[in-house]
Structure formats: structure tokens, C-alpha cells
Amino acid sequence: MKPTVVLFAALAIVWSLAAVSVTHGAEAEEWVPNDKCLECHGQNDLTKTNAAGRTISLFVDEAVMKGSVHATNSCISCHRDLAKAWEHPDDGHVVEPVNCAICHEQQSLTANASAHAIALRNGTLSAATCKDCHGQHNILAHGAPDSPTHFTHLAETCGQCHTEEASQLAESVHGIAAARGDRRAPTCIDCHSEHQIEDLRGASPIKIAEQVCGKCHASLRLNTRFNVRRTEVDTFLDSYHGLAAQGGSTKAANCASCHGWHNILASTDPRSTIHAGNLVKTCGQCHPGIGTNFASGKVHMDDTGDSEVGMVINRWVRRIYLAMIVVVVGLLGLHNGAAWFHKARAAYRAAGRTVIRMDVSQRRQHLILLISFIVLAITGFALRFPDSMLFWMLGTEEVRRWLHRAAGVVLLGVGGWHMVYIAASTEGRRLVRDLWFRTQDWRDLKTQAGYLAGRHTQRAKFGRFGYAEKIEYWAVVWGTIIMGVTGLAIWWKVDFTRFLPRWLIDVAITIHYYEAILACLAIIVWHFYHVIFDPDVYPASWAWLDGRVTKEWQKHEHPLEPLPETTHGVKPTPGEATTGGRESHGRHPRKPSGTDPASEI
Length: 601
Description:
Among the domains are: 1-29; 352-578, Transmembrane di-heme cytochromes, Chain C (Fumarate Reductase Cytochrome B subunit), CATH 1.20.950.20. It has 29 helices and 5 strands. It has helices at residues 3-29, 34-41, 62-66, 75-78, 105-111, 115-121, 130-134, 154-158, 163-171, 173-179, 188-192, 205-217, 220-226, 232-238, 240-246, 255-259, 279-284, 292-295, 309-349, 360-384, 389-394, 397-424, 426-435, 439-452, 467-491, 493-496, 503-533, 543-546, 551-557, and strands spanning 47-49, 55-57, 355-356, 548-549, 577-578. The strands form 2 sheets. It has a 3-stranded mixed sheet. β1 and β2 form a beta hairpin. Helix content is 55%, strand content 2%.
């Protein structure tokens, strides 16, 4: 046989095999048309027994399916495992459940965390799945009047499994309102969620009050529509039950403990758990042995307009006590405030405060820093806590915002002034040198820590500035830079984000907030102790006002800082003394500045 004939024969065989393969593949991938499925499933007597032992219909009404939201889908759009003509239960194939997540991924993920999905995973085969709520081939849009998930049919749909609950809900104030067609009436999914159906029997009391019942009963619009007091949630939270719930109690009574879950009825209905004739039984669930008088007490103590005798008396007692608190505490505060003022003035005028700790420029810088810091703290935290008294004091957000920015500019301004002061003045340069950290500060810190812990009998001895003052000074420098940079970035965020990523502004906001907390707490815990609460200076150190301290205090707190009498024969101004020396334990005493701050601040 010629080679050419052999070659052509081989090519023909390969071509035939390829054709068969392609044909077979095409046939395998050919999806089954709906007509072929309906040959059997169009028969209305086609049934099967499911895994739970129930007989279910396999009949598919083509007209109904074409009227559903899936009208454009083919059968195998959902039953994908039946896409091949030969894979069918008649051939031993086990049909897989429809996977709704193929198209409805987010809803399926949410439903997987529901009480129904958890029950299925635990082996309860009768637990509801997507088709039990939405239907199968007759699925309609959620807002369609005939949809099983339409708000008028939800109780009926859920009632297929939850018969008793649906019956109770139908007779409740919620069910009656829903039956009237009022869309604002709560349905099953308003309380139990939509796809992530929750079993609320184990929910915490505070969740029931705030996230379940409170969704509607704290709404002004809904309460106005149904003529229900909006204060019910607030008054519950103010009661013992509410306070205990907010404190984390899982046993405190919640809304449902008194009003019921699904059988919520008006208090005038004799069947209601909160009807006057049933209160002893209702309250007695938690308070056994109670009588009628106990049960007649109110949980929702809204005494602002109630004309009941007890509420009227309670309202006047409340008003009297509020007035008494204002008058009594006000008078006590006025008395002790005046006493403190007289003692503070006496301490300020006391003789012996002749040693100058701060010159005029330093005191002025400190005063501006003090005022701007306080304004920044008040106006800054007022934004973070808008319900606090801080915001109320400022009036409006516009006032708060510009006060905060103005104080920030002042703070940066005094920072710039200080930079010029330490660079251009002799006293400023000496101040920085004396405040610079040295090895001796570490030794002093260890010595003082041992003394405070009771391990040493001798405290550390400091020169002009000890480690405490140095830490505070450089902390102020650090905080001013951090707060200034982040504050300007937040203020001019539009300009900054033209060349920087937006997330940097979010980081700046976080830094600004937590640096503010750190600064305020440091001032209260550290600075206020040394200048106010330290028994040696209480009621206050007046150095910030006139720059002066007593010689006794100076010798006790800074024994290595020479007093004027030891500054190489330089005499202080009559009646005054000026501290000298650098933070080097008296080895390099400085000369007095010659400044007379007697009447300057």
C-alpha cells in the first residue's frame, strides 16, 4: 500500500474520532429544554416522599412559573445537576438541593447564620429553607400582594411551622394592625430579622429593649401614628429592670417578660398580661408572694403628666428634692469656696515667697498655654460627646468649631513665641540647657523610686529642675507638635488630600483624639498634683501667677539649686531672691536676671 493512501486513511480515522468527540461533548453540554421536564412534571399527580417522610408534589404549573420572578429562567438554571439529559432520578441520580446562593449570595450567607440554618445543621430536617418561605416555582417579588413574604402574609407563612405563635400574633395589637393593612405594624421579620432569623428566647434583656422593641417604641413617628408614648423605652431603661439590663444582667425583666412575646394585648384587654387583674400573676413570675399593692406599682415612671395620686406626689417630691439639692449643695459650695479663696489669698500674700522660679515672659507664655489648652479640651471633647453638658455650654456646633480652631491657633502661636524666646534670649537658652536630660536624671529617678517604695530613707536631691519637670516640659513640646500637625491636617483636609491619601486624615483624627486624652489625663494626674494637690503647695503653687516660691520650699524640692546668698556674692533685689544655677547640682550657678516681677503677670 502506498504511503499516501496510508496517510489519508489515518487522517480520516482521526477526523472521524474528533467529530464523534465533538458531537458527544456538544450533546453532553446541551441543556435540557423546559418542555422535556414538563412532560412528567406537568402532571399534577406526580409526587414523592421527602427525607422527613412527608409526601410532596412534584407538579410544576407552567403558567404559574411564567408569572414568577424566575420567568426567564429555565428549569436547569436552578437544577444544575440535571443539565445533562442522562442524569435524572430515573437513572439512579440523586437530585441535589437547589443552591440559591448561585444568584443570591449575600442573602444566603446571612441565612446560613439563622436559627433555621443552625437547626438544619443540627439534624432537624423539618427546619425551614428558602423555598419554605419564598415558595418554589411560584416565587413572587417581596412587595407583590400575593407573595408569601408580603407583610400581610408573613404571619401565615411563618405559621406553617410556628402555628401557636402565629395564632397569638393574629390576636395581638401588632397582628390586628397588620391585618388592617398598616405597613408600619411590626411583622415576624421586624422582630426576628429577615434572613438571619433570630431565636430571641436567649437574647439579653438590653437587646430586647433597645434593638427589638425599641426600634419602634423609641420612634417619634411611629409612636405618634399609633398614639403610644415615646418615653416607654426611656422610662424602662431608667427603672431597676432597665438599669440592671444595662449593667449586663441576663435575669432582669425585659419588655416581653411583662407584655408577652407574640400575644401582646392592650392593657385594657382582660386577656392582657398587664391588665390590672393579671398583674399579680405577671409580676409574681419574678416576685413570688406579692400582693395587689406591689403589682399596682409602675415600671414606666413617667411622672411629667400623669394625674394619678401616686404620680402627682412623686412628681412634687422629685421637684422639692431637686430644689433642695440646688440650694443645699449650692450654699455648701459657696461657703467652702469662700473659705478656700480666703486661705488661697492668705497663702498668696504670705511673707517669705521671695525666690523667683519663673520670669515674666515664662509666666505670660504659661498663662496663654493654660487658657488655650482648657478651651481646646472643652471644645474638643464636646464634639466627641455631644450629649454632655460641654456641648450645652457652647450653644451650637458653629460656636464650638471656631472656638476650637481659634484656641488651636493661639496654642501654636504661643509655641512659636516660645521658640523665639529660647533662641533669642539668654534666659531662654539657659532654660533649655537646664531642662535637657542628663545621666543624673536617671540616677535621681531610681533613687526617688526607691525612696517612694520605702527602700531608701533619703529622697533624691534636685537642682533647678528635676526629672518630673523635665518630663512635663518635653511632653508639652511633643504634644503641641503632634496636636498641631494633626489638627491642621483635619482642618484643611481638602487641601491635604490633594496630594495625600484620604486614610491619612482618618489616622490624624485618631491620633488627635487619643493624644488629647493622654494630654488631659497627664495634666490632671501629674501636673495638678505637683502644683495643687501636693500637701507642700496646697491650695496651690502661685509661681504661675507671680513667679515666686518660698525659700523653704526651694531648699526642700531643689536643694542643689543655690539660693541668692550663695551666688558668688551677687545680691538679690531688696525683699526678693532669685534662683540661680543650671541643672548641674550647683556647679554652675547663674546670675540673677535682674527682673522685678513684683506687679507683672
